[in-house]
Every structure is written in structure tokens, then in C-alpha cells.
């Protein structure tokens, strides 16, 4: 990959690579540490994806940065190698050690991000959750957006891949019809990271937390908080700090799993039937 990365880097900065090594830990992309004379970079590449995949990630990082609420790596550029068509994302290299207050800062700053209000619900433009592309627009109603542009969109992907059919499909459709029982029509519209599991934040210099790898949208902050609880990785200190700035509503517990359902459907569609049991359990809980 070095020649391709070197070519891409030349578009951004006329500098030779002095050191390069692969970085592991992501779900989806090939990633590299790159050092030139003046700068360290984190570079992601993906042979299978369209350049819009990294453009969307860069757009999300830039939108989060603009709120001034929480740190994100600076984006230096999105490139597509002319010969191989491989897309690449060049960004700031982040490295640091957790301090005692890192979790609290993450909680407070995430709450500040969520207090940054959006112009509606959703996002205008081509979007991705993981590798899955989904149509995205700004809606006036969170309920309609969450039902049609999120749950139904994943259900349709599942139907076409045959991971959703028969009884599972019927029950999901029943749930969609009743969704207004639990999901609010017009909650506060927050700027959300959109894919905040424990692996999508990291610590930079001085123990300062950074958000990485967003799937940006405007929506109900409880959607984001529900996902942080799905796979764990966030401490009680994080939640206490978050709640002290932006409390969750008393109804949060009653809809939490409906918000986790979206991510479980996306995981079912990306990674297979190991997520099917959790999808079915949640749907049964709400529609009987
Ligand atoms: P993927 O999109 O494949 O899931 P990630 O963006 O999550 O990839 O990055 C993969 C790993 O690389 C992360 O787990 C993290 O350890 C590391 N990483 C991500 N962004 C940076 C960065 N800006 N600087 C240094 N390391 C990073």
C-alpha cells in the first residue's frame, strides 16, 4: 500500500514517507500510521468501498468539529488513487493515555455535542452505517425518520439478503405500525455521532477524549445513549458526567431497546444471524 499512500499524500503535502506501519483494531478498513518529516498521519483505505464512504466520514468529523463541543481528529484529505480507484482518508494521528478524568470529560463533552441543535432529523446526503449505504434526508418528524429511514431501511436490506423473512418480518412490520407508542415525534434534535460503540472514541494527548469514525445525523440523543449501552465499554463515571449536563427523560428505559434495535438490525445485515436472537427478543418484547 505504501506507493498508493505516498501518491495520495503528495496531493496533500509534497513529502516523503519516512515511516509506515499497519494499525489494527478497526472493523472495516485497512489502516496505517504514516510519518513524514513534519507530520504524523492516520490513513485509512478500503478497496471495496466508493470514495463517498470516506467523504461521509470526513463530513461527519467536520460537523462534529464545528460544534466546538468535543475533539475529533483533523481531516487532511480524502483521495482516490487514479489507477486502482482505492479511496483513502488522511487524518491527524491521535495518541495518548487515559487520565483519571478522561471518562468524565467524554461524558460532559458528548452531552455538549448533543446540546448542539440540528436543523431537523436525519442528514442530507449519502450516508453509511458501517459498510451499509443508506438513503438519508432531513425530516421534520423524528418518529417518521426513525421508522422509515432507519428501521424500515434496514428491514428492506435484510429482506433482500434473506436475513429477514417469515415470522421475523411479520413481527417487525407489526412493530413499525405501533412505533408511535414509544418513539417521540419531536424530541430535541441533537448532533449525534451515530455509531458510538466503545471502539469509536480514543484518548489523545493529556488524556483528552476524541470521537472517531462517526455516522453523523441529527436526532434524539437517547438513540446515541442507547447504543453506548448495547455493547458496553463506557463507565459509570462517563454516564454520571453525561447525565449531569443532559439528563435522559423518564421514558428512556421504555424505549432504549427500540433504539438498540436499529444497530442490531444493521449488525444482522452486516455480520449475520448471531444478532438475530437479540432482534427477535426485542421485537417480541414490544409486540408480544
Ligand atoms: P474502522 O473504520 O475500520 O472501524 P477505525 O476508524 O475504528 O477503523 O480505526 C481503527 C483503529 O485505529 C481504532 O481502533 C483506533 O485504535 C485506531 N485509530 C483510529 N483513528 C485513529 C487516529 N486518528 N489516530 C491514531 N489511531 C487511530
UniProtKB/TrEMBL annotation:
Keywords: Kinase, Transferase. Signal peptide: none annotated. GO terms for molecular function: kinase activity. The keyword GTP-binding does not apply. PANTHER family: FRUCTOSAMINE 3 KINASE-RELATED PROTEIN, PROTEIN-RIBULOSAMINE 3-KINASE. Belongs to the fructosamine kinase family. This is Fructosamine kinase.
Amino acid at each position: 500500500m505504501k506507493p498508493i499512500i505516498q501518491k495520495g499524500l503528495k496531493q496533500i503535502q509534497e513529502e516523503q514517507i519516512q515511516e509506515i506501519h499497519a494499525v489494527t483494531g478497526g472493523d472495516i478498513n485497512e489502516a496505517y500510521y504514516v510519518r513524514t518529516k513534519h507530520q504524523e498521519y492516520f490513513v485509512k483505505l478500503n478497496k471495496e468501498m466508493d470514495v463517498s464512504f470516506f467523504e461521509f466520514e470526513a463530513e461527519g468529523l467536520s460537523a462534529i468539529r464545528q460544534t466546538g463541543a468535543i475533539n475529533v481528529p483533523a481531516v487532511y484529505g480524502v483521495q482516490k488513487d487514479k489507477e486502482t480507484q482505492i479511496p483513502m482518508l488522511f487524518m491527524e494521528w491521535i495518541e495518548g493515555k487515559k487520565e483519571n478524568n478522561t471518562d468524565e470529560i467524554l461524558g460532559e463533552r458528548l452531552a455538549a455535542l448533543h446540546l448542539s441543535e440540528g436543523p431537523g432529523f436525519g442528514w442530507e446526503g449519502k450516508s453509511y452505517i458501517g459498510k451499509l449505504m443508506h438513503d438519508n434526508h432531513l425530516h421534520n418528524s423524528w418518529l417518521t425518520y426513525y421508522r422509515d429511514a432507519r428501521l424500515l431501511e434496514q428491514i428492506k436490506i435484510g429482506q433482500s439478503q434473506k436475513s429477514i423473512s417469515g415470522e421475523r418480518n411479520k413481527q417487525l412490520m407489526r412493530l413499525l405500525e405501533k412505533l408511535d407508542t414509544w418513539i417521540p415525534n419531536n424530541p430535541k434534535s441533537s448532533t449525534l455521532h451515530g455509531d458510538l460503540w466503545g471502539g469509536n472514541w480514543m484518548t489523545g494527548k493529556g488524556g483528552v477524549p476524541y470521537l472517531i469514525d462517526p455516522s453523523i445525523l441529527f436526532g434524539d440523543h437517547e438513540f446515541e445513549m442507547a447504543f453506548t449501552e448495547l455493547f458496553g465499554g463506557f463507565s459509570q463515571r462517563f454516564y454520571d458526567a453525561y447525565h449531569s449536563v443532559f439528563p435522559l427523560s423518564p421514558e428512556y428505559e421504555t424505549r432504549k431497546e427500540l433504539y438498540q434495535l436499529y444497530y442490531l438490525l444493521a449488525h444482522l445485515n452486516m455480520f449475520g444471524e448471531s444478532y438475530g436472537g437479540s432482534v427477535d427478543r426485542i421485537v417480541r418484547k414490544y409486540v408480544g
